[in-house]
């Protein structure tokens, strides 16, 4: 399948979005061409259109599992249940279980058995904005949107402006969403209750909902605190996109919990993060819920230099030109930069072992390691661009659109 053929198919699908067979051919061609992420995006739509043939549900589910797409995998499972593909259901359930348990190194149970820990002490978060390199603009936005309303509630009350509601951070993987959420708690001097998807999701009927409710209870017992929902897309998978009753129940519980903010959620600041905002149920974004949405882009050049400085703080090193290095690492995420630093340090350790000395980290180690790390943000940016162009979601992604229009980014993505 040539690129031309695929782009012709893409155009045809854009013109005829409801032509299920055409979309299926596109999805299959993308798989053959190795464009797996793009193919899986098509399968998300196809499942919504009930356009995935029954005998392909397992194959699609396996592909989703192999690519870490839990939400898609779950929706394959639910479709298989609905259409009564018995064997397929078993296999897909097994994949879901495996994926959930592989994500949780140590499974932290938030269920009823954790009830007695509920009132237990959750200590104050120590991470602060100092540990977040660069991102000055985002820090300012968070300060205005989150920290100020929390520290000066009387000001907001006076002008009749609500200070409740949640904040959703979204952007490419590894660019500091989780770190920023933690640091926000630290800046507010509040404890951080991290609700990871693997702590909530449970294959047994009704247990995920109970876990989610327990997480909110735990946070309330420790209020004031920051409750953080990581991978919001998996918790709040767009319900219009598939009819599964199971994930709908989870979405409903989450909506109920969010709507309680301002009443019995007083002192609870809810932050969430996702790198698949297009999969998040619209209902989550209504006023009073996650009504403040912040795009966390890949760090720019000065931010990359700053992040490198933070990451290298405790490493014995020569004089380093971090600005030069940041320049040579376009589109790198914070996580990519961390990989770069770790690989450089590995080289230093290898040398130390070989020579018996204790050489400092030098520019040479860093530039050698740089050749082995590639930026991991490009896939995401390509995907969001096609959502903006083709899925009529432009107004939702204004900040991203502005970012994509900048000259440097346009050049990197073309
Ligand atoms: N601005 C930054 N300053 C310092 N370190 C950073 C920064 N951004 C990212 N990092 C490093 O990269 C790691 C990954 O960042 P983080 O987990 O916050 O990304 P994320 O956006 O939540 O990614 P994901 O979408 O995969 O959950 C952090 O633990 C940190 O070491
Ligand atoms: Mg994260």
TrEMBL record:
InterPro entries: AAA+_ATPase, AAA_ATPase_domain, ATPase_AAA_core, P-loop_NTPase, TPR-like_helical_dom_sf. SUPFAM superfamilies: P-loop containing nucleoside triphosphate hydrolases (SSF52540). The keyword Coiled coil applies. The keyword Phosphoprotein does not apply. Keywords: ATP-binding, Coiled coil, Nucleotide-binding. SMART domains: AAA. Residues 163-300 form the AAA+ ATPase domain. Coiled coil: none annotated. One of its GO terms (molecular function) is ATP binding. This is Tetratricopeptide repeat protein.
